[in-house]
Task: structure prediction
Amino acid sequence: MSESVKAPETKAPAKKTQAVTEAKTEAVLYVGPTISGIAITGTVYTTIPEAAKAAKADAPMILNLFIPIREYGEAERMIREKRGYVYSAYAEAQKFKLERGGKN
Result:
């Protein structure tokens, strides 16, 4: 009469999946320089523009300039202090803009 007792199966919490889904649809703020046809400084986008995704081929870090709005303070500080990954992306985007014939 030995019956094995199985432990109840546990499912992964649905909240984690929901949080990932919400993060994907979160509005983003562009903190880089205005680049004609790609993005405008200080603009909030519901999704990253396709033109910016295409520009990634020439400026791989450009997508780092699309940040969640709640991270604006930290991103602005990095740009102002000329340090961090946001500043590196900003400098790369500025160079990309000038190569395309944009004004400084």
Remarks:
- Helices lie at 14-24, 50-55, 72-81, 84-99.
- Residues 12-23 have pLDDT under 50 and may be disordered.
- The CA atoms of residues 14 and 20 lie 10 Å apart.
